[in-house]
C-alpha cells in the first residue's frame, strides 16, 4: 500500500516539477508569465530595450524599417505583458541608452549628454545635462542604476572620462579621475554601490580598475587564472553584492563584488561575448547562479559548476531574426522575446520539499492528505496520523502556506492553501494571522499579474517593494479602480489608501484637455466629495500648473479651509477674490496676509480704493497702521476725506514732537481738520492747548519753571507752589478756570 501511495504522489508532483532542472543540490524552473500582447513583426532586433525591474514597463526605441533621411525612430512603451501604453516618433538627438527610474519614469540618454525624462504615457517631464564638456566629446556608453540615494546615471565619454550622478532628483555630477591607458570606452564596465559609495569597475584587457571620487586603483579578482584572457563582459547582482566576469577565452569568474572571495570559475567553451550576463539568485539562495545569453543559447552556471543549457524560444514567423532580452530581478531573471515572457528562478526550498518526487516533508504529506480527503478516501486519515505521530502538523501547515506564496499558478496556490486550511482544523492553538495575510496578498498579486494590468510580481518582490509602493505603481499607470479595490480589501487606512488614490486621480483628471472646466469640476466633486485627507487646493494647484486657472478657481470653491484657498488665489493673481475669501473666513491673520500682498502688488491709490470696498479689511489695516505705519494711516484718512480722524492723528503726532514749533504746527493742522469736520469743541480745545503751550514756554524762558507739557491744572498748582501768584491769576482769567477748581 505504501508503494501505491508513493506512486500516486509521484504522478501528481510530476506535473508541478515538469519544468524543474537540477543545479547542484537545488532546482531551477521557468515560469510562464505571459504570452506577449504586442505585435512586433521584426522582433526585438535593432531596438534599444529597457525593462523596469519588479515587473515594470518595457520601453523600445525601434529603428525605422527603411533608413531614409525623413524616417524617425519610434519610441514605444508597453506594460510587462506587452499591452501598448503609448508610442511616438523620436524627434530629438541620437539615443545611447534607455532606463527606468524607481518612480517608473523613462530616462533617455542622448549622445550629447542630455537626459530626457518621460512619464509612462510618453509625456515629457523635464531634462538635464551630464555636463558641458560631454557635448563636445559625446557619450559612448551609459548606464542607469539604482542606489540607496535613488536613481543614478553613469556615462563614459569619447575622451575616456566617466561622469556619474547618484540621484537624478538632486543632481550632483561627479567627474571621476582619468584611467591610465584607456582609449575610448573600456571593454566592459559596471557601477558598484558599496557602503553608500558609488564606484565604477572597468576592464582594460585582462586588467581591472576601480574608480572612486579621488583615485583609480588596479585590482585583481582572487583565483582568476592568469591565462583567462581579456575581460570582455561584467555583471553585478541585483543587490550589488556579487560580481561576475567573462573573458574572451570563455572563462567565467564570479565572486563577491568587493573582490574578497571567489564563488565560481567555469570554462564555458564559448569564446564569443555573450549578449547579456546576469545573476540569478534569491534571498536565502541555496545555489546562486550566473545566467549567460547568446543568440539562441541560455546558459545557467551554478556555484557548484553544474550548468543548465536552454535553447531560447524563437518566433516561428521570423526564426532567424528574433532575439531575447533578460531583465534582472530580486529573485530571478525575466526572459522576454517577441512572443512570450518567462521567469527563470531557483525553486524555493519549501517548494522543493513539498513537490519533490517521493518527498516525506510534512507539507507534502498534508497536501496529499487533503487531496485524499477531497476524494473521500480513508487514506487521508493515514497521512494525517503519520503527520501527527511525528508531531509536525503545525510545520506542515506553515510549509503549505509559505509554498503557496511562492507559486505563480493560482490553481497550485489554492491547492496548497486548502491543504493548510484543512491541516489547521486539527490544531487547537494555531495562530491564523499568517494564513489570512498570505491569502489576501495572493489575491492582490493574482489581480496585478493579470495580462490587462501586466505586473508579474512574485511574492518575494512584493514583500520587498511594500504595499505602498505597489499602490504607487498602480497610480502611475492610472489603474485607479483596482488600486481602490486593493486598498479597501486590505483595509488600508483612508489617508494612506483610498484618499491617496482619489487625490492622484483628481490631479490627472484636471489635465484632460478634451473636457470642459465645468465637467471636470463636477466629476471631481462627485468622486472626491468630502473625503478627509483629499485637499481641493492641491487639485486646484495642479489645474493651475496646467494653465487652467478658471478650473482651479472652481475647484477652490469646494475647499472648506480658507487657509488653503487664499495662498493659491494670491499665487494665481486673483487678489480681490482672495481678499473676499479671507474676510469671509473671519481669520484676521489671513486678512493681514492678503492686505500685505495687495500693498506690495498695487500702487497706493488702487490699494486704498480696494480696501474701501472691504470695511473689515480696512478696519484691520487701520489697526495695523496705528501700531506700525503711522504715515500710511494719514494717507488713508486723506483718501477717505476723514477730517475728524485726520485731526486726531495730528494731535497724536504732535505729542511725539520734541520741538515746540513742530508740535504747534501739528496742532494747527489738527485745528484746521477739526474745523473741516465742523467739530467746534475739539477745534477750540486744541487752540487753547496751543495757547497754554506758548504761555508755558514763555514762563520757562523767564523763570525756568519747567512747565512745558503740563496740564492747565498742574501748571497752576506749580505756579502757586513757586510763589508766582500773578502768573497763576493770569491763567485763571485767560482760561476761565471755574472758581471751585
Automatic annotation (TrEMBL):
Listed GO MF terms: actin binding
Xref: Pfam families: Vps16_C, Vps16_N
Listed GO CC annotations: endosome; HOPS complex; lysosomal membrane
GO biological process, one term: endosomal transport
Name of the protein in question: Vacuolar protein sorting-associated protein 16 homolog
Species of provenance: Oryzias melastigma (Marine medaka)
Record InterPro entries: VPS16 (IPR016534), Vps16_C (IPR006925), Vps16_C_sf (IPR038132), Vps16_N (IPR006926)
Keywords from the UniProt entry: Coiled coil
Chain coiled-coil ranges: 657-684
Span of domain Vps16 N-terminal: 17-436
Entry superkingdom: Eukaryota
Vps16 C-terminal domain mapped to chain residues: 534-741
Family: Belongs to the VPS16 family.
Amino acid at each position: 500500500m505504501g508503494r501505491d501511495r508513493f506512486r500516486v504522489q509521484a504522478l501528481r508532483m510530476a506535473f508541478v516539477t515538469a519544468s524543474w532542472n537540477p543545479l547542484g543540490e537545488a532546482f531551477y524552473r521557468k515560469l510562464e508569465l505571459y504570452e506577449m500582447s504586442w505585435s512586433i513583426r521584426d522582433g526585438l532586433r535593432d531596438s534599444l530595450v529597457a525593462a523596469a525591474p519588479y515587473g515594470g514597463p518595457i520601453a523600445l526605441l525601434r529603428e525605422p524599417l527603411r533608413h531614409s533621411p525623413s524616417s524617425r525612430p519610434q519610441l514605444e512603451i508597453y506594460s510587462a505583458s506587452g499591452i501598448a501604453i503609448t508610442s511616438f516618433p523620436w524627434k530629438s538627438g541620437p539615443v545611447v541608452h534607455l532606463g527606468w527610474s524607481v518612480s517608473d519614469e523613462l530616462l533617455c540618454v542622448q549622445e550629447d549628454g542630455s537626459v530626457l525624462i518621460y512619464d509612462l504615457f510618453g509625456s515629457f517631464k523635464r531634462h538635464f545635462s551630464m555636463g558641458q564638456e560631454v557635448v563636445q566629446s559625446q557619450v559612448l556608453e551609459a548606464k542607469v542604476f539604482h542606489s540607496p540615494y535613488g536613481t543614478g546615471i553613469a556615462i563614459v565619454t569619447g575622451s575616456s572620462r566617466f561622469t556619474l550622478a547618484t540621484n537624478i532628483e538632486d543632481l550632483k555630477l561627479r567627474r571621476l579621475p582619468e584611467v591610465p591607458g584607456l582609449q575610448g570606452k573600456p571593454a566592459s564596465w559596471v557601477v558598484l554601490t558599496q557602503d553608500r559609495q558609488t564606484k565604477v569597475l572597468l576592464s582594460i584587457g585582462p586588467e581591472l580598475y576601480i574608480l572612486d571620487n579621488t583615485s583609480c586603483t588596479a585590482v585583481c579578482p582572487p583565483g582568476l587564472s592568469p591565462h583567462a584572457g581579456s575581460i570582455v563582459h561584467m555583471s553585478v547582482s541585483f543587490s550589488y553584492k556579487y560580481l561576475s566576469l567573462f573573458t574572451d577565452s570563455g572563462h567565467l569568474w564570479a565572486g563577491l563584488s568587493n573582490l574578497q572571495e571567489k564563488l565560481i570559475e567555469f570554462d564555458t567553451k564559448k569564446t564569443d561575448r555573450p549578449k547579456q550576463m546576469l545573476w540569478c539568485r534569491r534571498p536565502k539562495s541555496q545555489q546562486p547562479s550566473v545566467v549567460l545569453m547568446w543568440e539562441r543559447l541560455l546558459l545557467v552556471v551554478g556555484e557548484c559548476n553544474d550548468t543548465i543549457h536552454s535553447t531560447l524560444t524563437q518566433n516561428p514567423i521570423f526564426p532567424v531574426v528574433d532575439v531575447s532580452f533578460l531583465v534582472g530581478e530580486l529573485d530571478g531573471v525575466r526572459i522576454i522575446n517577441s512572443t512570450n515572457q518567462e521567469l527563470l528562478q531557483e525553486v524555493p526550498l519549501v517548494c522543493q520539499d513539498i513537490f519533490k518526487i517521493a518527498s516525506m516533508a510534512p507539507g507534502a504529506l498534508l497536501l496529499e492528505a487533503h487531496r485524499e480527503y477531497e476524494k473521500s478516501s480513508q487514506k487521508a486519515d493515514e497521512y494525517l496520523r503519520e503527520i501527527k505521530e511525528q508531531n509536525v502538523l503545525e510545520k506542515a501547515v506553515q510549509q503549505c502556506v509559505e509554498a503557496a506564496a511562492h507559486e505563480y499558478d493560482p490553481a497550485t496556490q489554492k491547492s496548497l492553501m486548502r491543504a493548510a486550511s484543512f491541516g489547521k482544523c486539527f490544531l487547537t492553538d494555531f495562530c491564523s494571522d499568517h494564513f489570512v495575510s498570505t491569502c489576501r496578498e495572493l489575491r492582490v498579486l493574482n489581480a496585478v499579474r493579470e495580462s490587462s494590468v501586466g505586473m508579474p510580481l512574485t511574492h518575494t518582490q512584493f514583500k520587498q517593494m511594500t504595499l505602498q509602493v505597489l499602490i504607487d505603481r498602480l497610480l502611475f499607470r492610472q489603474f485607479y479602480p483596482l488600486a481602490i479595490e486593493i486598498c479597501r480589501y486590505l483595509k488600508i487606512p483612508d489617508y494612506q489608501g483610498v484618499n491617496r488614490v482619489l487625490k492622484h486621480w483628481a490631479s490627472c483628471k484636471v489635465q484632460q484637455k478634451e473636457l470642459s472646466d465645468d465637467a471636470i469640476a463636477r466629476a471631481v466633486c462627485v468622486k472626491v466629495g468630502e473625503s478627509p485627507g483629499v485637499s481641493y487646493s492641491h487639485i486646484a494647484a495642479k489645474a493651475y500648473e496646467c494653465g487652467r486657472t478658471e478650473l482651479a478657481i472652481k475647484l477652490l470653491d469646494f475647499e472648506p479651509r480658507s487657509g488653503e484657498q487664499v495662498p493659491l488665489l494670491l499665487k494665481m493673481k486673483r487678489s480681490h477674490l482672495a481678499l473676499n475669501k479671507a474676510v469671509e473666513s473671519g481669520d484676521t491673520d489671513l486678512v493681514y496676509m492678503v492686505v500685505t500682498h495687495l500693498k506690495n502688488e498695487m500702487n497706493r491709490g488702487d490699494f486704498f480704493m480696494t480696501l474701501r470696498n472691504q470695511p473689515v479689511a480696512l478696519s484691520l489695516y487701520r489697526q495695523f497702521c496705528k501700531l506700525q505705519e503711522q504715515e500710511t494711516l494719514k494717507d488713508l484718512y486723506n483718501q477717505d476725506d476723514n477730517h475728524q480722524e485726520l485731526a486726531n492723528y495730528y494731535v497724536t503726532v504732535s505729542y511725539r514732537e520734541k520741538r515746540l514749533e513742530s508740535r504747534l504746527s501739528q496742532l494747527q493742522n489738527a485745528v484746521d481738520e477739526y474745523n473741516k469736520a465742523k467739530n467746534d469743541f475739539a477745534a477750540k480745545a486744541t487752540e487753547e492747548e496751543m495757547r497754554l503751550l506758548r504761555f508755558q514756554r514763555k514762563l520757562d524762558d523767564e523763570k525756568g519753571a519747567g512747565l512745558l507739557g503740563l496740564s492747565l491744572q498742574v501748571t497752576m498748582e506749580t505756579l502757586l507752589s513757586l510763589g508766582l501768584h500773578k502768573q497763576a491769576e493770569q491763567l485763571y482769567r485767560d482760561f476761565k478756570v471755574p472758581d471751585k477748581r
